[in-house]
Write a structure and sequence with these properties.
single chain, four-stranded mixed β-sheet, alpha+beta, 2 domains, 24% helix, 4 helices, 38% strand, 11 strands, Nucleoside Triphosphate Pyrophosphohydrolase
């Protein structure tokens, strides 16, 4: 009887009967099952890239984020399917594009690592982590015309100290950086 109850509850919990409370150009606020959350519109996915240069440097970016009114250290990331005509863009292609746009590094290999919610209590987004391989520098990066991104290349063995230093100087660090460090510090052959 317990299993039947669980199945019934699981079905009830996954029903998507929602009401739109408000909508903008990029997100909308919805309500369902006595809960309110944000949903991204005009994108099919979010990609986050763990990239280590041939010189053993982790590539991080820094930019001002208005929602927290601060500069934030992050892993390179972006949206898939957000450009008109690319609605069916594969996540791997978006990851390659975003990495080069933000950092000036092109990857010829993009390995999917994991996918999950960044903040399941407030947004329906899922972020897919990728590891970039075979990096070649093609430019300075910095983002598109709407972004002002500073690129940081930090030796993997000193990333923790560098991040602590940034925080002590008032720069925020996105917690996903620490999740990315798990993948950046793990030997690639141990993932198999």
């Amino acid at each position: 009887m317990g299993e039947n109850m669980l199945e019934k509850n699981e079905t009830k919990e996954t029903t998507r009967d929602i009401a739109i409370l408000g909508s903008g150009r990029h997100i909308r606020l919805v309500k369902g099952r006595r809960w309110e959350w944000a949903e991204r519109i005009n994108a099919t996915g979010i990609v986050l890239i763990v990239a280590v240069t041939p010189d053993d440097e982790l590539i991080l970016i820094e930019q001002f984020r208005p929602p927290v009114d601060a500069r934030v250290i992050e892993l390179p990331a972006g949206l898939a399917g957000d450009i008109p005509g690319t609605e069916n863009e594969a996540l791997e292609i978006a990851a390659i594009r975003e990495l080069e746009e933000e950092t000036g590094y092109r990857a010829t290999e993009m390995q999917r690592l994991t996918s999950g919610p960044p903040s399941a209590g407030i947004t329906s987004e899922l972020i897919t982590f990728f590891r970039a391989g075979d990096l070649v520098r093609t430019g300075d990066g910095g983002g598109d015309e709407h972004e002002s991104i500073q690129v940081h290349r930090i030796k993997r063995n000193s990333v923790h100290h560098w991040l602590q230093e940034q925080e002590s100087n008032g720069v925020m660090v996105d917690n996903k950086v620490y999740a990315g460090l798990y993948w950046a510090l793990m030997p690639q052959d141990s993932e198999q």
